[in-house]
Design brief:
Radius of gyration: 30 Å
Order of helices and strands: HEHHEHEHHEHHHHHHEEH
Largest sheet: 2 strands, antiparallel
Shape: elongated
Structural class: mainly alpha
Low-confidence stretches: 14-19
Mean pLDDT: 86
Helix content: 40-55%
Number of helices: 13
């Protein structure tokens, strides 16, 4: 039977569509969206941190040989709308899976690992971090402290020649699992600090005349001095004003750090300690931060309040400070506080 012109067009279109369908099917097989898995007997360990995106997971699975293609993974996730249900955790997966099978495996909750929560308060010294780990977890505090001051684990905010990570670990509550070591915990603390700092405008420090590391040092002093968030930018301004005037900072928290003791009062002997951290005796900033600042103190160091204050002193029993521009006014504020019966 002879085909009409219309019949020939329909036949050609049908052949074209069939070719497209076959090609599409072959392509989807080639990237692991269609087909059957051929899982290997060996398994690989996949760690998925909090906040990992679709593309990152696909790249990780492809790199480890779990799936053929990160593109196939993204297509499978799109078709199944499953990425938002994937939980952070550690998974044991076979290699040679199709993308849908890999997705199904990840949608199963990872085995619950036993963990211990440990809290590092804002303002903690490295020695405090080490002590908390030593008392609350299986991590040896001395090993942690030695590593944290060795320069073997570094922060991007750490200048050349500075080996200690003091002030560069983020204070918060963490979960420590049995597989953790001093190094994995230290890496996590550094990474969390950098993650939190990434949301801050460190470019602003150029206008203050200090480096990013020096701004973190200032934040650590603010953390040690302030109890109220609204006063942190004002304390920051006092520090910057004193630096610009060439005055000694006179922050007793730096002396406590030099002593290595958490004390409530300082003796005259304490105040005279020979140390680069004694800001009553040495002009300028201490050589390193004096503790772990939180986000509010970091923000204050990068965004000091406007003012001409050079002094501050406690003003009441709730932690408020009185700020002043002159020494005479400071002495009046100090006398008023000393008259209180807190």
């Amino acid at each position: 039977m002879k085909l009409t012109r219309r019949g020939r067009i329909v036949l050609l279109l049908g052949a074209f569509v069939l070719t497209l369908l076959v090609g599409f099917n072959l392509f989807m097989h080639s990237i692991g969206v269609y087909g059957e898995s051929a899982p290997a007997s060996d398994r690989v360990t996949i760690d998925i941190p909090e906040g990992t995106g679709t593309a990152e997971i696909g790249d990780l699975l492809t790199r480890e040989g779990v799936i053929k293609s990160s593109l196939g993974w993204r297509i499978a996730v799109f078709l199944h709308s499953g990425n938002e249900l994937i939980q952070a955790g550690t998974y044991q997966l076979a290699t040679g899976l199709t993308a849908p099978d890999a997705l199904d495996a990840l949608l199963e909750r990872p085995p619950k690992e036993e963990f211990t929560r440990v809290t590092f308060p804002e303002g903690s010294w490295l020695t405090d971090f080490a002590a908390a780990l030593d008392s609350d977890t299986h991590i040896d505090g001395d090993a942690f402290l030695e590593l944290a001051t060795s320069g073997k684990v570094r922060s991007k905010y750490q200048p050349d020649g500075i080996e200690t990570l003091e002030g560069l670990l983020f204070p918060s509550t963490y979960e420590v699992i049995e597989r953790d070591s001093a190094r994995t915990v230290l890496n996590r603390l550094v990474e969390e600090f950098e993650k939190q700092a990434a949301g801050l405008d460190f470019a602003r420090v150029e206008s203050t005349g200090v480096s990013a590391y020096e701004a973190i040092t200032i934040a650590s002093m603010i953390e040690a001095e302030a109890e109220l968030d609204e006063e942190r930018p004002m304390i920051a301004r006092v520090i910057y004003n004193r630096l610009q005037e060439g005055m000694q900072l006179g922050i007793d928290a730096t002396i406590l750090y030099a002593l290595g003791e958490h004390k409530t009062t300082l003796s005259s002997e304490d105040l005279a300690i020979d140390s680069p951290y004694n800001t009553r005796e040495v002009t300028g900033l201490p050589p390193t931060p004096i503790g772990a600042p939180g986000v509010k103190s970091l923000e204050a160091a990068l965004n000091p309040a406007d003012g001409e204050w050079l002094y501050y002193v406690l003003a009441d029993c709730e932690g408020h400070h009185a700020f002043s521009e002159t020494y005479e006014e400071f002495l009046e504020n100090k006398a008023a506080y000393q008259a209180l019966t807190c």
